[in-house]
């Protein structure tokens, strides 16, 4: 599990724990806010790997590189974002390279 996902889940857990504490104190506005934010943090972490599930070896024809480069959590390699209009693809970055 990526470290970033664990951090988001830990924050969600702390928010839910805070909701329980404020619920015991009958501070309902804070209880509702913390409980909802904790659930949203956990929901955001459920599909964490979905962003990088389809990583291409080569960019599609006509696509342009963007300045965005990410570390692929499934592999220990970086991916670069390529785009064509509104469509975006994640492409493995060659070792020590800038793309094409």
Please explain how this structure is put together.
The chain has 100 residues and is α+β, with helices and mostly antiparallel strands. The chain has 2 domains: 44 residues; 40 residues, no CATH class. Strands 1-4-3-2 form a 4-stranded mixed sheet, with no helix packed on it. Helix 1 packs antiparallel against helix 2. The longest helix is centred in the N-terminal third of the chain and has 22 residues. The radius of gyration is 19 Å and the shape is elongated.
Radius of gyration: 19 Å
What's the mean pLDDT score? 86
Using DSSP, what is the number of strands?
A: 4
DSSP strand content: 15-25%
Number of helices: 2
Question: What fraction, in percent, of the residue positions are helical?
Answer: 40-55%
Q: Largest sheet, if any? A: 4 strands, mixed
Derived from helix and strand composition plus strand pairing, the structural class reads alpha+beta
Strand order of the largest sheet: 1-4-3-2
Which SSEs are present, and which pair or pack?
Blueprint: H1 3-24, H2 28-46, E1 55-56, E2 64-71, E3 78-84, E4 87-92
Parallel strand pairs: 1-4
Antiparallel strand pairs: 2-3, 3-4
Helix pairs in contact: 1-2
List keywords for this structure.
100 residues; alpha+beta; 2 domains; elongated; 4 strands
């Amino acid at each position: 599990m990526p470290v970033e996902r664990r951090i988001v889940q830990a924050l969600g857990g702390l928010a839910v724990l805070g909701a329980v504490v404020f619920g015991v104190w009958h501070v309902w506005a804070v209880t509702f806010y913390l409980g909802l934010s904790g659930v949203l943090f956990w929901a955001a972490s459920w599909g964490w790997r979905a962003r990088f599930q389809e990583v291409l070896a080569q960019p599609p024809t006509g696509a342009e590189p963007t300045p965005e480069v990410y570390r692929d959590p499934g592999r220990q390699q970086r991916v670069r974002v390529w785009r064509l209009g509104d469509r975006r693809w994640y492409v493995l970055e060659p070792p020590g390279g800038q793309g094409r």
